[in-house]
């Protein structure tokens, strides 16, 4: 059962985002980016109180994703990308992105905090950051 509602267009949109943001980190990295996106739709806190759909999340500005804001969100979703997107929509979660609302690719080590949110870990090139459970309980499921 899905943790958020999504039509086929939204599934493909999430798949494109996952590919654009983390294709270089492989399927697991793409799944973690998907987790972060799903968490933003579920969250009713911080920068995401008005994000209710995958479309809202993908195109949120400011506070959204580099892929959509800097022009590398152009590749179509492949079948494998769509299957990965379906997995995170169904609720599969992958550490360190299980409760993350942010990730980024630093030049060096992951900072302990980023915009006041705690580092939950790194996977390949990306560091993941999550709010506390008291700040945003919706992402702790």
From TrEMBL:
Single Gene Ontology MF annotation: hydrolase activity
Q: Does the keyword Ubl conjugation apply?
A: no
Residues covered by the Cell wall hydrolase SleB domain: 24-129
Pfam families per UniProt? Hydrolase_2 (PF07486)
The record's InterPro entries line, in alphabetical order, gives: Cell_wall_hydrolase_SleB, SleB_dom1
Q: List UniProt keywords, sorted A-Z.
A: Hydrolase
- State the protein's name: Cell wall hydrolase
Q: Source species, please?
A: Ornithinibacillus sp. 4-3
